[in-house]
Structures are given as C-alpha cells and as structure tokens.
C-alpha cells in the first residue's frame, strides 16, 4: 500500500489490526489513510502512544496488534 503526500510517497510497512485506517510507513511514522497525514506520538501521563479513533492507545497496547506487510 502506498500513500501519496504533498512532497513524497510513503510505503506501508506495518498494519494495525483493529484500526484499518492507520498504518506505519517505512520511515517508522504513523499515518492515517483518510486524511493523508502523519499522526503524532503524544505523552499521556507517563505513557507514549497515539490517539486512534478518539481512543488513546499506548505503545505497549499497539505492539501486539502490528502486522508486517510482506512485499
């Protein structure tokens, strides 16, 4: 899967199970397919994570949900 941004094209490396509209590119940044934008990592208390579909998901919660895309 490729996502074309204004200045570059991002190739997906990881998909997130349960969150079909999001992926992690080969540059290790998270993107949302619908808006074609990068999702920023945030700090909630002492936990790093992302807001996906208005729900905070920490990195420890997301790690088992990642599925590698084989090319």
UniProtKB/TrEMBL annotation:
<protein>
    <recommendedName>
        <fullName>Homing endonuclease LAGLIDADG domain-containing protein</fullName>
    </recommendedName>
</protein>
């Amino acid at each position: 899967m490729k996502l074309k941004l204004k200045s570059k094209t991002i190739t997906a490396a990881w998909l997130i199970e349960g969150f079909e509209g999001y992926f992690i590119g080969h540059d290790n940044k998270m993107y949302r397919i619908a808006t074609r934008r990068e999702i920023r990592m945030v700090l909630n208390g002492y936990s790093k994570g992302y807001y996906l579909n208005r729900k905070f998901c920490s990195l420890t919660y997301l790690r088992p949900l990642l599925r590698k895309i084989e090319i």
